Amino acid sequence: MAERSTAAVDVADNSGDKPLTAQADQSTADGVATNRERDTDNDEAQGSGGTERPGKASPPELHSGHKLARRYRLEDCVTRLDGFSSWRAVDEKLRRAVGVHVLPADHARARSVLAAARSAALLGDPRFVQVLDAVEENDLVYVVHEWLPDATELTTLLTTGPLEPHDAYQMVSQIAAAMAAAHREGLAHLRLNPNAVLRTSTGQWRIRGLAVNAALRGISSDTPQRTDTEAIGALLYAALTQRWPYENDAYGLSGLPKDIGLIAPDQVRAGVHRGLSELSMRALVNDGATASRHEAACATPEELVKAIGEMPRIRPPEPAFTAPPEYQRTTYQQGSYGRSAPHPGAAQPVPTPPPPLQSRTGRALKWAVSALLIAALGLGSWQLADALMDQGSQSDDTNQTQTTDSEDKNPTAKPAKPLTIAGATEYVAKGDAQAPEDVAKTYDGSSSTYWRTKSFVDGPEMKPSFKPGVGIVYDLGSEQRVSAASIGLKYPGNSGGHTTITLYATDSTSSATPVSSMRRLGTLTTTGTEATVKVTGAVKTRYVLVWLTALPYAPGDSYSGAGYKQAITDLKFTG
């Protein structure tokens, strides 16, 4: 296939993840660290036939702290090239991070950028990073879009190796369906590459820069549907092989060996899923022909969606479950101190009661009976018999009382069983994620590591209209009976406020399940740094949401500024 390669500079289009060559640290005082990055890549046109026209205008003199529309405060410049710049900004009205592209109103591509942004905003498809505003004001044109701090570029995901078959299947299915919907509305991407594809913490795939990325660079195509379809095929090829399906290296991926042409993914790497390999080749068309050996080419996203639907569904791998370790318990019973309890389910010997009257009380009773017998000899046979009957009755009552008291003092209590946590995912009901990369630190056994929330202005009760709560969904590996959760907290409530924690049983780790549909297990409000939330009733579930709806006030530190916030560590479940 003929390939066009230019040494163009790529905009970061930073919708909340990282620039192409450096990752912004999202854990500074305002949630995102300053990181200016000039970002370049090999701009593989992938057979698009696109053209670029250089802008003639100079970039506007903007700086951190500058406000657009008295609302969008520019924070960090992530890209500055070809007459336009891209920024991370803060929407002060809604108190959330956004991304902004800015260019002069007299820029050669200003009109086309505005038109593309407004068309993309009208689509309103959640599979795309949403355009929030497109304005011409004070000799500037700027486009405001979502910023997704919980999302990771496909470029970054492929640095550790190719995707698992199920992940690659989900990616191509969701991307193809989204692009098919966009083309039905007359919208094309034309810049669909590994930098434009994001996976969120909930496992959803999203596309950024629809129409806008191409307009910023002046890229056009006579065959937009084929251009985007071939781009999807290249994405799938890269996901399966960790190689770019052309001779030149691009997006941090090595190209194919020169002079061998385009070969199928299952010939590049062993173990590649045969159906997905065939699908990627069907999408990599060249002038109506196909590199596939058996099937017809897919020249439009709609045809690609149909081809995916005809494939057998690829199911996720079975989750690996590690059985919890057996714990040795020390019990104290009469004559058994220091012995470990028998294994559950094993036959347990019934303790043999001591012979009657072998205790100290029994020996005293023996002497008393003997004395009574001697005295009874002098009082007559009828008195002797009466005394013996009374003494026997008294002995029986004493023994019965001793047995009952012993049973009351040594009841058999079922000990609480620690539950193994197989995994965890941050739950995002609304707005931005907090620190999805740190959820495993809540149960890693170290008190010095935490999952932290961001610092909020209002509190202690969180505002449902802005952020109804923050929390983490824990996977117990299989359905378990949950009786309580013990949680370590970093910030106490002595500086003001309190922490409110509620446990919910849910059906998955997905944030798509609303809290209102989950089963409430228990709740606790505390001002301390240790919390034990007890579950009311007998409940069995695999997934448990730990949900925080009130946070204490805490001063600023190296992770965030002063405000209402909390951090979780040493979390354990018992059943």
How would you sum up this structure, described in words?
This protein folds into two domains: 1-315, Orthogonal Bundle (Transferase(Phosphotransferase), domain 1); 418-574, Jelly Rolls. Helix content is 23%, strand content 25%. The chain is built from ten helices and 25 strands. The relative contact order is 0.09.
Average pLDDT number: 79
Instruction: Please mark out the parts with pLDDT under 50 across 5 or more consecutive residues, or reply none.
Output: 1-60, 327-348, 393-412
Number of strands: 25
Oligomer: single chain
Helical residues, percent: 10-25%
The helix-and-strand class reads alpha+beta
Radius of gyration (CA) equals 35 Å
The N- to C-terminal Cα distance equals 60 Å
Question: Tally the helices: what do you get?
Answer: 10
Measured by DSSP, the beta-strand proportion falls in 15-25%
Main sheet characteristics: 8 strands, antiparallel
CATH class of the largest domain: Mainly Alpha
Q: Looking at the structure, what is the overall shape?
A: globular
Number of domains: 2
Q: What is the level-2 CATH architecture name of the largest domain?
A: Orthogonal Bundle
Question: What is the fourth-level CATH superfamily of the largest domain?
Answer: Transferase(Phosphotransferase) domain 1
Question: What is the compact description of this entry?
Answer:
This protein has 575 residues and is α+β, with helices and mostly antiparallel strands. The protein has helices at 110-123, 154-157, 165-184, 212-217, 224-241, 265-268, 274-283, 301-310, 360-377, 381-409, and strands spanning 5-6, 43-44, 67-68, 72-81, 84-91, 96-104, 131-137, 140-146, 152-153, 197-199, 205-207, 243-244, 254-255, 285-286, 289-290, 418-419, 423-427, 451-452, 470-489, 499-506, 519-526, 530-550, 553-554, 563-564, 567-574.
